[in-house]
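Weekly puzzle thread! Below is a chain. First person to post its structure in token form gets bragging rights.
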Amino acid sequence: MSNFISAGCSFTFGHELSDDFESRYPSKKSWAYQLYSNGSFSDYICCAKGGIGNSAIARNVFQKINEVDNIDCVSVMWTFISRYDWAMPPHKILDEQRWASITPWETDDREEEAYKALESNLIQQQLHKERQENFNKAGVRPFANSLYRYAANDYHETFLSLKSIIWLQNILEKRKIPYFFTLADNTLFFDNMVHRKDNDKLMHNLYSELDLNKWFFFGERCMGFNQWSLLNDYKRGTTHPLDDAHDDAVKLMLPSFIKIIGEKNVWLDKKDNQ
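Winning reply:
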């Protein structure tokens, strides 16, 4: 048995793709599932979830690799750095989950913007409404309002994301689990690496810890999947690129994926292996 673990946010889960039915099950049209299907892996295990931040992504992978044996690949698409994760007090746990992921859309300031962005997709709008209702019941909303109005900033967000990525990278390397990293959003690298790496010792040292040989970037400017799909005018749903973007992204990823994960796990020509 050879397990393939995918992790990330809605861009990995496959929200709004043609086989996405109410966002309840991982899509088989997603870039991650297509990478899996190009290999000799036996099982696809998706721990991606819409709306979560990078610390949640790292935590989900850590939990999964402690539950599953025979892992031949962990594939992660890191998300927007502006998302925070908050450990809930025991009396306020949401849907039996200790952790809550908070985005700018959880604030009063951007509530109208969120509903407007989702107005063409009733399923996504309903899921967002349910999420907001749960957050209100648990008291997350006031915390989110204060966080984004007075405390959140991209420097701190970059630090938190890098810390999570390096933590997971080191665990995977310690356990000798092959991994493949990429990005949904490029803020972590393009905006912050270019403008801060050489001017801030902490950031410089953190970026130096990353093994960039295990990463795939969309283009020379370290673009993420979202920016690349926008730049190339791929069709979109409310907030996500659709099937064609995922199909073409896999074509770009596959050479790097083969190099990083190893040819023994990837069928170079699937027809010859059927």
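Puzzle host: Confirmed. Bonus trivia for everyone else. Confidence is low (pLDDT under 50) at residues 268-274.
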